[in-house]
Design brief:
The protein has 693 residues and is of the alpha+beta class. 28% of the residues lie in helices and 31% in strands. Helix 10 packs parallel to helix 11. It is globular, with a radius of gyration of 44 Å. The N and C termini lie far apart (115 Å). The N terminus is likely disordered. One of its GO terms (molecular function) is GTPase activity.
Length: 693
């Protein structure tokens, strides 16, 4: 018994030491302090003590209760933090955690989901390339230009003209949003990029020897010397230099054609040679050519011709050009000036060297492999060979036998000839050629699109009818240079698919007689912004010439007037509208007519329920809401009297050509063609645009 009692006291003391130890005290919920001050005590049942000791590996049964100390509230609060050290989890209060409200933040802008314009292109693959225009993209996808321009706006691109070149990445996004598959023609194929000859356009006043200079340059070619000289008219030709270099010259019929080609997207010119007569100086068409060259953003080389004449004064010409803002090399600028004579053929070598030097600085290169990208320079109808198109290849290789779409025409290339008349199998970049095999005559500036099959060419030809686009030339004069640039940029925002706003000339100062002469020559309007009113003599000369002068001091008023002129000048879009609807109440049949008169006919007795009916309109027959027949109206009568118009609520009898399938209860619609003009929209912040339908 004594040993047993001593054992109890030993276990009792050992248990107390265990419970007050640092490591095991945490296991049962005590703090690490050895002092038990501030603690409360209670009894633990004997079974609980036995369970604890058994869990500790001791097989000892206690017969007497043991005192266990619990922490106070302060120690319990500290204990909750200490529990994390041994992996004990504190039970959460409540079923749900409290949500902490955060201050609102600005949500990022999410662009609207782009609307696909068609679902029929999912199985179609569209070939794209760098620099293709919206018009070319519309031809390949079969969609309208306006719908593709809407996609460009949704993609964040600035839309100025459907003839502006697109980056290949932008074109890929547009085609993908249109619902078609994309194939980059020249991403891998265009690895073969080689230097190409420079393409030069010769411009100048009509009497300054442009044609003579072209003939003289053509005769300096190595090939021309071997052929004995070529003097016939050619739209383009290549001058081969003894060094092996080549220069492609374009003979444009006039500045208006040059502007029209640029408006149609035919940016084939790399360099402009401006011809000025040494005895005549700068003339109005010279200024017009300067404006065209500046707007085309191409380098210019000045060729002062007729230097062999006794009255020649090249220095005066240089001063006149400098006064027009042409910074010549002799005056610290970058525009080269060469003195030549087309009659004596002096200075031609210097002119060719200047062209090659400028071309070397431009580092002209082009893709050689892949389908060709070409533009038509001129076209004519030959009695024996049919339609002939002179084209210049910009990139790729044009191969004989390919199917092509040229503007609104198509065909299979039957023959390719170079400008000397020799047959060739292929045409490479900057090479002018004459192609045969088109079904019709294209227009200057039309692009040549190569397709795989004849069926594809027919389909693209049907979709390639570009809306009529007119040109509105403007001459801008303002008080200072900064204002001139701002007004010009604002006016160019009024470009639309139907009207091309072409700023042909800008200047600082009041409106002068030369401005009126230039406007009369190119049919332009004169815009004066923040300048004095012209003298009465100039105003009378403008009125006599039919030139309109617009003067403003507020940009909004100027945009409003010019924008309304653009709307009036736009050809508009033809649309079919339902002008009226009538219900068939009875059917009459005329028999016994002669065969020459067309046999029996059926007359529909109708009551006009809405709108009006016109004899000159087309009629559409509907049955249960579905179209049954459509054709022109051949007869419209009221009480056996021929009439031209039937208003709402009246009864009439009408005959539709070729339709004998009337039934009582059918609905007949009267269809009319209306011209829908564009709309001028000016926002509150002064941004103007023309919206076409």
């Amino acid at each position: 018994m004594a040993c047993r009692a001593a054992g109890k006291r030993g276990i009792d003391a050992g248990l107390k030491r265990v419970l007050t130890s640092t490591s095991l005290g945490h296991a049962v919920g005590l703090t690490s302090r050895t002092s038990l001050g501030g603690a409360s005590a209670r009894y633990i049942p004997e079974s609980s003590t036995s369970s604890f000791l058994q869990g500790s590996g001791h097989h000892t049964t206690l017969e007497s209760p043991i005192r266990c100390f619990h922490a106070s509230r302060e120690l319990w609060a500290r204990r909750k933090n200490d529990d994390q050290g041994v992996g004990l989890k504190t039970q959460k209060k409540g079923k749900f955690a409290k949500r902490i409200k955060k201050p609102p933040v600005d949500a990022p802008y999410v662009p609207p989901k782009l609307k696909r314009i068609t679902k029929s292109l999912q199985d179609k693959t569209i070939d794209i390339f760098e620099g293709m225009t919206t018009v070319e993209l519309a031809k390949r996808t079969g969609q309208s230009v306006i719908s593709l321009q809407e996609l460009l706006v949704n993609l964040g691109e600035k839309v100025v003209s459907e003839f502006d070149p697109l980056k290949i990445d932008v074109a890929e996004l547009v085609v993908m949003e249109a619902g078609a598959n994309v194939r980059r023609l020249h991403s891998n194929e265009g690895s073969e990029i080689l230097p190409r000859p420079v393409v030069v356009t010769v411009m100048g006043h009509v009497d300054h020897g442009k044609t003579s200079l072209l003939d003289a340059l053509r005769q300096t070619s190595v090939a021309a010397k071997e052929a004995g000289g070529i003097t016939q008219h050619l739209g383009a030709f290549v001058v081969s230099m003894p060094s092996g270099a080549a220069i492609t010259f374009l003979d444009t019929p006039g500045h208006a054609a040059f502007s029209a080609m640029r408006a149609r997207g035919a940016a084939v010119t790399d360099l402009v040679v401006l011809v000025v007569a040494a005895d005549d100086g700068v003339m109005p068409q010279t200024l017009e050519a300067i404006s065209h060259a500046k707007s085309a953003n191409v380098p210019v080389i000045v060729a002062i011709n007729k230097c062999d004449k006794p009255s020649a004064n090249p220095e005066r010409v240089k001063l006149q050009l400098a006064s027009e803002g042409f910074l010549l090399e002799e005056m610290g600028g970058d525009i080269q000036v060469v003195e030549v004579s087309a009659i004596t053929k002096t200075g031609l070598d210097n002119l060719e060297e200047a062209i090659l030097l400028q071309a070397e600085m431009m580092e002209l290169k082009a893709r050689v492999d892949g389908h060709a990208q070409a533009y038509v320079v001129e076209a004519k109808l030959d009695k024996g060979r049919g339609p002939l198109a002179t084209a210049i290849v910009k990139a790729g290789t044009l191969v004989c036998g390919q199917h092509v779409v040229v503007g609104s025409e198509w065909g299979r290339i039957r023959v390719i000839r170079d400008m000397s008349g020799k047959l060739t199998e292929r045409a490479r970049p900057a090479m002018p050629v004459v192609i045969e095999g088109l079904k019709g005559l294209p227009m200057a500036g039309d692009d040549v699109t190569v397709v795989e099959t004849e069926e594809r060419a027919r389909m693209l030809k049907d979709d390639s009818v570009v809306p009529e686009r007119t040109e509105m030339p403007l001459i801008v004069k303002a008080d200072v240079q900064g204002t001139v640039q701002a007004v010009t940029d604002a006016l160019r925002t009024l470009n639309s698919p139907q009207v091309f706003v072409n700023v042909v000339h800008v200047g600082v100062g009041p409106i002068s007689q030369s401005d009126v002469d230039l406007a009369q020559a190119c049919g332009a309007y004169i815009v004066g912004f923040n300048v004095k009113s012209p003298p009465s003599s100039i105003s009378q000369a403008a009125t006599k010439a039919g030139t309109k002068i617009m003067q403003h001091q507020v940009i909004y008023h100027l945009l409003d007037e010019v924008g309304n002129l653009v709307v009036d000048k736009a050809p508009g879009t033809l649309e079919t509208q339902v002008a009226g609807a009538a219900e068939v109440l009875n059917i009459f049949e005329l028999k016994g007519r002669s065969k020459s008169a067309g046999g029996d006919i059926k007359i529909a007795g109708c009551r006009v329920m809405d709108g009006h009916f016109s004899k000159t309109s087309s009629m559409r027959l509907l049955r249960s809401g579905e179209e049954v027949f459509e054709g022109p109206c051949t007869s419209l009568k009221i009480n056996k009297h021929d009439v031209e118009l039937v208003e709402k609520g009246n009864e009439c009898g009408l005959v539709i050509l070729g339709c004998n399938d009337f039934q009582i209860g059918d609905v007949i619609q009267c269809l009319e063609q209306v011209v829908r003009k564009p709309k001028l929209i000016i926002s509150d912040n002064g941004i103007a645009r023309i919206e076409c339908y």
